[in-house]
Design brief:
Blueprint lengths: L5 H13 L9 E3 L5 H12 L5 E5 H7 L9 E5 L5 E14 L5 H7 L6 H15 L11 E11 L1
Parallel strand pairs: 1-3
Antiparallel strand pairs: 2-5, 3-4, 4-5
Helix pairs in contact: 4-5
Length: 153
C-alpha cells in the first residue's frame, strides 16, 4: 500500500467501525474545486449542510476516462490538504445541456447567492480556467448534475 493511502484506509476503517453497513471496499476519494482553498471552501458548505449538489463537465469525464458518478455510489471527500473529511452518497445524476441546468440545482450547489445567474457565472469561469478537456467551455456543453447526501460527519 502506498504511504499516502494510509490516512484514507484508516479513515474508512473508522467509518466502517461506526457504520458496519458501509461496504468493505473503500470508495473513491476526491476534493471539490480546482485549488486547495476552493476544496476547503466547498467542503465547508457540504459539512454545513448547505451544499447538496455539484456539477461537472461531461467532456472532462470523457477526456480523462474516469467513470461517471452513479446513483448510490459513495465518495470520500478530501479537504485542501488531501485529508479525508466526509463521506457522501450520490442520490441523483442528470446530464443536461448547460442551458437546462435549473434554479433548483443551482440552489443545491450552495455557492454564492445560490441563484441560477450566479451559478452560471461561477461555472463558466471555472470551466474556462480549469477544464481538463480541449473543448473547455461552450454554452451548450453537457453538464453532469449530481445530487448527494452527507453520510459522515
Amino acid at each position: 500500500m502506498a504511504p499516502d493511502q494510509q490516512p484514507l484506509v484508516e479513515f474508512w476503517r473508522l467509518r466502517r467501525s461506526e457504520s458496519p453497513d458501509l461496504p468493505d471496499a473503500m470508495p473513491a476519494s476526491w476534493a471539490f474545486g480546482a485549488t486547495p482553498a476552493h476544496a476547503d471552501e466547498l467542503l465547508a458548505l457540504v459539512l454545513a449542510g448547505v451544499k447538496t449538489g455539484t456539477a461537472s463537465s461531461l467532456w472532462d469525464y470523457e477526456h480523462s476516462g474516469e467513470p461517471l458518478p452513479e446513483e448510490g455510489e459513495l465518495s470520500i471527500i478530501l479537504d485542501g490538504t488531501g485529508a479525508p473529511r466526509a463521506v457522501i452518497e450520490t442520490t441523483r445524476i442528470r446530464i443536461v445541456p448547460l442551458g437546462e441546468v435549473d434554479e433548483e440545482h443551482a440552489h443545491a450547489e450552495g455557492e454564492g447567492d445560490r441563484s441560477l445567474a450566479s451559478w452560471r457565472e461561477v461555472h463558466e469561469r471555472y470551466w474556462r480556467l480549469h477544464s481538463e478537456n480541449p473543448r473547455g467551455f461552450a454554452p451548450d456543453m453537457p453538464v453532469v448534475c449530481e445530487r448527494f447526501r452527507l453520510l459522515y460527519p
